[in-house]
């Protein structure tokens, strides 16, 4: 197996037909078909089902594509890194942030990249904490800022900050403004943001998470929809002040501290453990850390910095 075979295989997978893949790669269909046949022979399994019009990946083909995409992306990053290292930081980096991270440093990050690294292409997306490892493993993103990550030898997760988890909603829904016990809030119309294991973004205690999931009246995968429900009085959210800070500042919503026990969540910066580093990746990673720490130090982000990073 070589890089050309992988590139041709990925083109066939993405285009769904040998003719279209051949046009894309600017090679003859016969040559593409020969490379595919050799690859299938080497692996000892068919990678595509031949259809009257096009091809459909087999289970083995779908699995190989995940590896091929990561390998080809690493090769592209290495090529760009070496070619451009003597001139300036360039290349392509994809970062995936939890909602709070996007809200806090998304715009400043893009401004700094535009100013300091004009030849670097940045892909910024909002992801759920429950999908972090999946997106890192498949190379959909190179770097993440997400909450409450479980230890996994495939990845490096470093804690950056810790936030207090509070009860947020209209005063008439959450029952006042003062502290509330965890047991008492379970009787309220709770809304949780849920996708896969994303409720781990609220807290890391499995027993408390289970109680929240069992008590929650509503489960949504949209921050915007949750904000609308909070303002309309449909329910209340167990989260952080920062998520709806503008509504709290405007007096439309209140945040009640949770007691017995107090609740916190931790933000981690994550990457693949065996990912080859590039100048572009190191620049963006350090910039994400610097901007996060700056947001905490200037009190734009109400959180506790957990570790000091240096260049």
UniProtKB/TrEMBL annotation:
HTH lysR-type domain: residues covered? 1-58
What's in the keyword line of the UniProt record? Answer: Activator, DNA-binding, Transcription, Transcription regulation
Instruction: Specify the species.
Output: Cribrihabitans marinus
Q: Which domain of life is it from?
A: Bacteria
Molecular function GO labels: DNA binding; DNA-binding transcription factor activity
Query: Cross-referenced InterPro entries, in alphabetical order?
Result: LysR_HTH_N, LysR_subst-bd, WH-like_DNA-bd_sf, WH_DNA-bd_sf
Note the PANTHER family from the entry.
Answer: NITROGEN ASSIMILATION REGULATORY PROTEIN NAC, TRANSCRIPTIONAL REGULATORY PROTEIN NAC-RELATED
* Gene Ontology BP annotations: regulation of DNA-templated transcription initiation
Question: What is the protein's name according to its record?
Answer: LysR family transcriptional regulator, nitrogen assimilation regulatory protein
The UniProt similarity line reads: Belongs to the LysR transcriptional regulatory family.
């Amino acid at each position: 197996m070589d890089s050309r075979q992988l590139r041709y295989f990925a083109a066939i997978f993405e285009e769904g037909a040998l003719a279209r893949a051949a046009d894309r790669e600017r090679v003859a269909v016969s040559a593409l078909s020969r490379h595919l046949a050799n690859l299938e022979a080497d692996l000892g399994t068919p990678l595509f089902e031949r259809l009257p019009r096009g091809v459909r990946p087999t289970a083995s083909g779908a699995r190989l594509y995940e590896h091929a995409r990561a390998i080809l992306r690493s090769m592209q990053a290495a090529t760009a890194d070496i070619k451009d290292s003597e001139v300036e930081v360039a290349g392509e980096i994809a970062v995936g942030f939890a909602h709070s991270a996007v809200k806090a440093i998304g715009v400043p990050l893009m401004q700094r990249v535009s100013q300091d690294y004009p030849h670097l292409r940045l892909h910024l997306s909002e992801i759920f904490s429950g999908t972090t490892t999946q997106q890192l493993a498949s190379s959909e993103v190179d770097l993440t800022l997400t909450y409450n990550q479980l230890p996994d030898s495939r990845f490096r997760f470093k804690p950056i900050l810790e936030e207090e988890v509070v009860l947020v909603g209209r005063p008439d829904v959450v029952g006042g403004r003062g502290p509330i016990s965890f047991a008492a809030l379970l009787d309220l119309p709770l809304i949780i943001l849920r996708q896969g294991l994303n409720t781990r973004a609220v807290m890391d205690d499995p027993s408390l998470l289970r109680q929240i999931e069992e008590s929650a009246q509503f489960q949504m995968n949209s921050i915007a929809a949750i904000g609308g429900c909070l303002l309309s009085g449909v329910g209340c959210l167990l989260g952080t002040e920062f998520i709806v800070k503008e509504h709290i500042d405007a007096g439309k919503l209140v945040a009640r501290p949770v007691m017995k026990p107090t609740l916190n969540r931790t933000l981690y910066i994550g990457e693949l453990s065996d990912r080859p580093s590039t100048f572009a990746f190191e620049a963006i990673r350090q910039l994400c850390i610097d901007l996060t720490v700056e947001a905490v130090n200037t009190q734009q982000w109400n959180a506790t910095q957990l570790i000091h990073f240096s260049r």
